[in-house]
Design a protein that fits this description.
The structure is a single chain. The protein is an alpha/beta fold. It has three domains: 6-182, Rossmann fold (3-Layer(aba) Sandwich), CATH 3.40.50.620; 210-273, Adenine nucleotide alpha hydrolases-like domains (SH3 type barrels, Roll), CATH 2.30.30; 278-363, Beta Barrel (Elongation Factor Tu (Ef-tu), domain 3). The chain has helices spanning 15-26, 50-64, 74-90, 97-116, 158-161, 173-182, 204-209; strands at residues 6-10, 30-37, 67-72, 121-123, 128-133, 136-141, 164-165, 217-220, 226-230, 257-263, 268-273, 281-292, 303-307, 315-320, 326-336, 343-348, 351-363. Strands 12-15-14-13-16-17 form a six-stranded antiparallel barrel. The protein has a five-stranded parallel sheet with strand order 3-2-1-4-7, with helices on both faces. Strands 9-8-11-10 form a four-stranded mixed sheet, with no helix packed on it. Strand 1 (6-10), helix 1 and strand 2 form a beta-alpha-beta unit. It is globular. It starts with 5 loop residues before the first strand and ends in an 18-residue tail after the last strand.
């Protein structure tokens, strides 16, 4: 890209988006910052206040020498992202709001607004890359494997990628912070944001209780032995070890407890002992609500890599029954705590080809002598 172009950068108040805007400005482009406010309820200084983020974003824009506009997408966020977030939790699944937030807000509402301002491109501080090959736009992993965020971007399509730039794709986080420090950006050492997308860090149970009624019940073993009480199935996720309130051992064997299933029909939380318990392992999953970035389902004969959670290493897999709406992912090795509601994201080497929402997972095929205990009969997660 050699000519000067009009680019709207999503400025969040954090260091990543600040450096993304800085780099584009230094390349000679006409850069405008856009700050998105997407949450208004309980937006106080006690939690991740958007007011402070806006102050930081404005300070960055002033330092870089670019214009900045604030826009409110809170209605769209509540309708398109948060309502789905609550529905999934109520159904006993564990959603990932960042995935939906990217697809519906950052690369739809934001993109549409930027185009209405006359932008040729949008840019964000995500750690990912885009390249064009034979007219097809591909989403690639970032050079910094520890910060790669392609997992959260798998729902983007060709039209969105064609208008998107990721200036940090070839940089490492340590270099981004050093650039910000060297250029005098006040947020160069600001802590990375965590928590729910655009809502931030909050006491999770207290927050969720404001929108969904808690329904306490029994914590049981696969054999049906009661070992404790849960606060409500929505507060737990498969593989969870902390916060169960039942101690770390039973019968003195030293094995920790883990959440293995949610028995929705009987409002029971099923727990097992041992990280490698057979009920925590799966060799196959079914995914729905798919998005293939190329616009076409992938080949089913090829070997791919898959992530069922962020920061997981790619797990070798193959796809079967791959369509626009449904696919089965078969793993070469058993996967741990595959969680309905989370996303499975498929890669071909460094290229993210798409993914979907995990609907169910098949228990790993383990011989009787290897199984820690009989799985029993429990409701599906």
């Amino acid at each position: 890209m050699t000519r000067k172009q009009k680019i709207v950068v999503g400025l969040s108040g954090g260091v990543d988006s600040a450096v993304a805007a800085l780099l584009l400005k230094q390349q000679g482009h006409e850069v405008t910052g856009l700050f998105m406010k997407n949450w208004e309820e309980d937006d106080t200084d006690e939690h991740c206040s958007s007011r402070q983020d806006l102050v930081d974003a404005v300070a960055v824009a002033d330092r870089i020498g670019i214009e900045i506009e604030a826009v409110n997408f809170s209605t769209e966020y509540k309708d398109r992202v948060f309502s789905e977030f609550l529905r999934e939790y109520q159904a006993g699944r564990t959603p990932n709001p960042d995935v939906l937030c990217n697809a519906e807000i950052k690369f739809k509402c934001f993109l549409d607004h930027a185009m209405s301002l006359g932008a040729e491109w949008i840019a964000t501080g995500h750690y990912a890359q885009v390249r064009e090959v034979d007219g097809l736009h591909q989403l690639l992993k970032a050079e910094d494997g520890g910060k790669d965020q392609s997992y959260f971007l798998y729902r983007l399509n060709q039209q969105q990628l064609a208008k998107t730039m990721f200036p940090l794709g070839k940089l490492y986080k340590r270099d981004v912070r050093e650039i910000a420090r060297r250029e005098g950006l006040a947020n160069h050492d600001k802590k990375d944001s965590t928590g729910i997308c655009f809502i931030g860090e909050r006491p999770f149970r207290e927050f969720l209780n404001r929108y969904l009624p808690a329904n306490p019940g029994d914590i049981v073993t696969p054999e049906g032995v009661k070992v404790g009480k849960h606060m409500g199935l929505m507060f737990y996720t498969l593989g969870q070890r902390q916060g169960l309130g039942i101690g770390g051992t039973r019968n003195g064997d030293g094995e920790a407890w883990y959440v293995a299933r949610k028995d929705m029909a009987n409002n029971r939380l099923v727990v097992v002992q041992g990280h490698e318990h057979s009920m925590l392992l799966s060799d196959e999953l079914t995914a729905v609500n798919l998005n293939w970035i190329s616009g076409e389902p992938p080949h089913t004969q090829w070997v791919y890599g898959a992530k069922t959670r962020y920061r997981q290493k790619d797990a070798a897999c193959s796809l079967s029954k791959s369509t626009f709406t449904h696919c089965v992912v078969e793993f070469a090795e058993n996967q741990w705590a595959v969680t309905p509601g989370q996303s499975v994201v498929i890669y071909e080497s460094r290229v993210c080809i798409g993914g979907g929402i995990i609907e169910s997972a098949r228990p790993a095929q383990i011989t009787p002598r290897d199984a820690p205990c009989p799985p029993g009969t429990v409701g599906k997660a």
